[in-house]
Amino acid sequence: MKKSILSLASAVLFAFSMNAQQVEFEEYDLSNGMHVILHQDSSAPVVVTSVMYHVGAKDEQPGRTGMAHFFEHLLFEGTENIKKGEWFKMVSSNGGRNNANTTDDRTYYYEIFPSNKLELGLWMESERLLHPIIGQDGVDTQNEVVKEEKRLRVDNQPYSKFLEYVKENIFKKHPYKGTTIGKMEDLDAATLEEFLAFNKKFYVPNNATLVVAGDIDKAAAKKMIEDYFGPIPRGEEITRNFPKEDPITEAMTAKGYDANIQIPAIMAAYRTPSMKTRDSRVLDMISSYLSTGRSSVLYKKLVDDKKMALQAGAINLSQEDYGTYILYGLPQGDTQLKDIIAEVDAEIVKMQTELISEKDFQKLQNQFENNFVNSNSSVEGIANSLARYNVLYGDTNLINTEIDIFRSITREEIRDVAKKYLNPNQRLLLEYLPEAK
């Protein structure tokens, strides 16, 4: 009876996601190369105006790390028509909110307004693109802001440096070996001319995707978009030719230190393929199997049953060019790091030689169906997804069809992908240790 109830619940979830999650959108290009995506949803009187620029930390010059993230801050400084310090006041006084974020691959800006403020949102984003004021005063101000962010989020935050250590060892050639926030000495050394050149190269309409989502009249929105963004000159074409990494064929070891921790950690990191590949999506499922929730394999085994670890899990950091897959554990009591990784490896070998159970596989499918439903449950989430699928995957309709890829993944593929990528001779073993005081 219990199995029948579970099967019924799965069927209901599947039917709901099939029938309720189709996201309708329209996309086109302006003559200057800016890609535009429109999504109409009149269920609430709100509108999202967002722009995703195809520029991230990997686009920075050697010795000038942190530039992309710095621009996320710098381009709130003001424009020719928005005075310094007025951006956020203008948004909040019109009933809106806004934010921005940067990764190694892209930078994303967005505003959420009452739907009768659509024109304001479009004007503000066009101002950011057409009339930014990039001066030494703004650079100096944001330099201090970024330094404080780094102190709060990285330098003084426990376990915040592990990814930095992983990336600098996993990547030898590709710029993913750096960090998104960058090095402060690089930003200190950058000249105003370099900031201006970065803006001129990457903040151009042909390197941007504009998404307008929510309670809109499409015809009116198109006219406003043309009026505000159409006259902006096209920039030079951007070519990317990043160096390719050699395969990892021998195990690597490294140590990283953190003055903010008392308990060490062990990380096994593997370089994996682009997030655009099917294998990367299988690795997503493997991560969920190993570490999503207290009933997941690694948590149940190492934390609950054997009491060897305070925490254990898996992270699939999937990116545009490569991915980084990380297995980790924090030991409890006198447990040694090598004992943690031995137990983790035993579970990986089991995955490589046996099929996961039908019950666990169905649980995975339910998790991904649920994630799919949740990701498209708000106009804000839809706007982000539309931009991301267009900029990083080159296929906006993945907002509707990516779930079909996950549905088609088999237990055999989970076994084979684990066997293909998660081997001891293809990894970095990083000991993450307290720094001696």
Automatic annotation (TrEMBL):
Signal peptide: 1-20
Gene Ontology MF, one: metallopeptidase activity
Family: Belongs to the peptidase M16 family.
Keyword Protein biosynthesis: no
Annotated Gene3D superfamilies: Metalloenzyme, LuxS/M16 peptidase-like
Any one GO biological process: proteolysis
Naturally occurring in which organism (per UniProt): Polaribacter dokdonensis DSW-5
Protein name: Peptidase family M16
Domain Peptidase M16 C-terminal positions: 190-367
UniProt domain Peptidase M16 N-terminal: residue ranges: 36-181
Sorted UniProt keywords: Hydrolase, Metalloprotease, Protease, Signal, Zinc
One Pfam entry name: Peptidase_M16
